[in-house]
Amino acid sequence: MKKIAVVEDDRVLRKALKSLLEENGYGTCCLEDFSNVEEEILRAGPDMVLLDILLPGTNGQEILRNLRQKSQIPVIMVTSREGDMDQILAMSYGADDYITKPYNPTLLLLKLEAVFRRIQPETPQEEVTWGGITLNLLRSTMTHEGEERVLSKNEFSIFYYLVKNQGRIVSRDELMDYLWDCNDFVDDNTLTVNINRLRKKLEEAGIRNAIETRRGQGYILL
């Protein structure tokens, strides 16, 4: 279980972050004393830090700068101040990402997952199977009943991600975030086009109605 250090002086928000993270499978450690934050973080040994910029007696940017002298632990800055300057300063000091309050809980979780994927890239299997289909990650193909079909990079990435998350709804934002981490920028229209092309190739292989659209939620592989 990955552990997240929460450095937030607002007691209500700190409690909400703790609940959100633990409900989604993370361990937490919450700092309440801000006199020696860097040492407390290093002592706790978390896998990531959610670091507020505005803290009593100090600020998150200074903490981040000092922390980077001792550790490369991933840090996502959290702040109530809007504006490019905070973001520029946070990134220049070595933050891995940035989110502004009030934040969307789903967006925060996606940012956590994205940072973890970047620092610990997954080593995929050469082949993955689903419903009689074999996905070959090296050849970017799917094979069904002995017939191999080539998928585009985006089609393959979408299908692979849906297979890995079979049985749960995957939102469009989540898919686009995953494709972005695969070094391809995909907008909303492009995602729709690739989903339709993937469905057509599945139908050509004799697999119908495999990807179901859940209106307002996303897609689920049945």
TrEMBL record:
Domain OmpR/PhoB-type: 125-222
Residues annotated to bind DNA: 125-222
Keywords: DNA-binding, Phosphoprotein, Transcription, Transcription regulation
Any matching Pfam family: Response_reg
Signal peptide: none
SUPFAM superfamilies on file: CheY-like (SSF52172)
InterPro entries: CheY-like_superfamily, OmpR/PhoB-type_DNA-bd, Sig_transdc_resp-reg_receiver, WalR-like, WH-like_DNA-bd_sf
Entry annotated with the keyword Transmembrane: no
4-aspartylphosphate: residues carrying this PTM: D52
A GO term, aspect molecular function: phosphorelay response regulator activity
Residues of the Response regulatory domain: 3-116
Gene Ontology BP terms: regulation of DNA-templated transcription
Keyword Transmembrane: no
One GO CC term on file: protein-DNA complex
Superkingdom per UniProt: Bacteria
Function per UniProt: May play the central regulatory role in sporulation. It may be an element of the effector pathway responsible for the activation of sporulation genes in response to nutritional stress. Spo0A may act in concert with spo0H (a sigma factor) to control the expression of some genes that are critical to the sporulation process.
Stated name of the protein: Stage 0 sporulation protein A homolog
Species, as recorded: Candidatus Blautia pullistercoris
